[in-house]
Write the structure tokens for this entry.
Amino acid sequence: MPGNNNHRLVLFDIDGTLVRCGPTPRRVFKRALEQTFGTAGPIDEWIFDGKTDPLIVRELIEAAGVDWDDRLAEMALKLYVEGLARELPGEAAKRILPGVVPLLEGLRERGALLGLLTGNVRDGARVKLESLGLWDYFPFGGFADDSHLRSEIATAAVRRAGEFSGGRFAGKDIVIVGDTPHDMRCGRHLGAKAVGVATGRSPVEELMDAGAGAALGNLSDTEQAVSSILT
Ligand SMILES: [Mg+2]
């Protein structure tokens, strides 16, 4: 294999980085909150980007002024995943972002280990990526089930990479690819490198300001994307 000596762990965010899922996830999330807490608060204006699913639940319920209940929050996320599994396959607007598949193939060819680092709960991540045929690229990951803090999700993803591969990844062996300032910051405590992609809400400059080692407009130039990630 060409250059198969890259001891690199590349951890991908999902929404705005690998895929866009259209309006279905938000609609399903809203219904799940209404069915549990009786309200979804100001969900229509709420920015989800870069936040974990449990944190979004907490913010919306606080904003609605409704009493917090762990059991209801857990049930809301369960209803959300069930609704997503039913309704996302029929979402016409969902798509893989440009260049993602050639990039994942290119990184694998070069011996990089791929994983997920996402604010989605694991079952939600699975529904999203399976509906677009991407789930099997990622044998492990860190998910919102691990923590509501993205930095702790990063730690969990790196631990799983070690368990999966038997290797040890630290500092610049770890590359985090994402579309928000949250993604750029979440691996700082690990000394990880962050690579931004401006296919979400944040422009390149904002991602660089948040500490990205490199930031790209999109991932469609495979050679450029691979080299930004691996060098
Ligand atoms: Mg994202």
